[in-house]
Amino acid sequence: MRPCHGDTRHGYPAARRCHSCVQLGCKVYICGGYNGHVIFGDLWMVDLTRMQWSRLPAILPEPVYFHSAAVTSSGLMLVHGGVVQIDTRRSSKVFAVWLCVPPLKQLCWQTLIHTQPAVLHQSRLALLEMGVPPDLVATLDH
């Protein structure tokens, strides 16, 4: 078994529990968590091919533990809910962070939704007639 190397500036992630963990290709990401005293809002990646930890510059808007996280095939990690004050307050917020540079198609789609939210209420046919690619239309729940 090969040893794992720490981030050259930050070392290794602090010991924690109740964090989330997702994998995208040969990289694994952990975020948030709790060590019994501190709630974390940091994001770490370990590259399994190089066995190298890196602390990412992203920080959750609110430190959280006992939350859920998932990642899309295009690299968008979504973090939902969790505990934000030790044993007292839960959250229902959703945070999103790109773990890699997304495909241009995804960036355009996200920009369209952000600038023209009414597009989400259009019929499938109207979206297709507007030129929205069929694979993006298929992702909507109509």
Q: N-to-C SSE series?
A: EEEEEEEHHH
Helix content: 10-25%
Q: What are the low-pLDDT stretches, counting only 5+ consecutive residues below 50? A: none
Kindly provide the radius of gyration, computed on alpha-carbon positions and rounded to a whole number of angstroms.
18 Å
Mean of residue pLDDT values: 93
Number of strands: 7
Q: What structural class results from the helix and strand content?
A: alpha+beta
User: Main beta sheet, described?
Assistant: 4 strands, antiparallel
Query: What's the end-to-end separation, in Å?
Result: 49 Å
Strand order of the largest sheet: 1-2-3-4
* Overall shape: globular
How many DSSP H or I helices? 3
How many domain modules? 2
Walkthrough of the structure:
There is one protein chain. The chain has 142 residues and is of the alpha+beta class. The chain is built from three helices and seven strands; from the N terminus they run E-E-E-E-E-E-E-H-H-H. Helix content is 16%, strand content 34%. A four-stranded antiparallel β-sheet has the order 1-2-3-4, with no helix packed on it. A three-stranded antiparallel β-sheet has the order 5-6-7, with no helix packed on it. Strand 6 and strand 7 form a beta hairpin. The protein is globular. The mean pLDDT is 93.
